[in-house]
Specification:
Elements lengths: L7 H7 L5 E3 L32 E5 L13 E6 L4 E5 L7 H5 L16
Antiparallel strand pairs: 1-2, 2-3, 3-4
């Protein structure tokens, strides 16, 4: 498995070599705590504001854009069935913290940064 993050090889092995993460839960809009009242797991597909923006899975590593697996970007899968690559951002230390809520509660990018 190729990666620019030296710590990822042991992380991948510990995670049964799975390189994608399921968006079970996301942060509140303020990013101060988890949004426990409306998890993604078990939610009907029609129960999100924007299915073409609501992410179901994303790749690891996703926290530092410099080590993202696709030339400083990651591949995401969405509720509406499409997949797409998103650029990482030097302004964001963790893709999940900034984007896992996108489309589920609001129809736009929660952080205001579509990249």
């Amino acid at each position: 498995m190729k990666t620019q993050d030296p710590a990822m090889l042991s992380r991948f092995r510990s995670n049964n070599n799975v390189t994608y993460v399921w968006n079970h839960i996301y942060l509140t809009k303020s990013r101060s705590s988890y949004e426990v009242s409306r998890p993604v797991s078990g939610r009907m597909a029609g129960n999100c504001v924007n299915p073409s923006l609501s992410v179901l899975t994303w790749e690891m590593p996703y926290w530092d854009y410099k080590t993202m697996p696709h030339k400083r970007g990651i591949v995401l899968s969405y509720v509406d069935g499409h997949a797409a690559r998103m650029n990482g951002s030097p302004k964001e230390h963790d893709w999940w913290a900034y984007h896992s809520r996108d489309g589920w509660e609001e129809g736009d990018y929660t952080c205001g940064n579509p990249h």
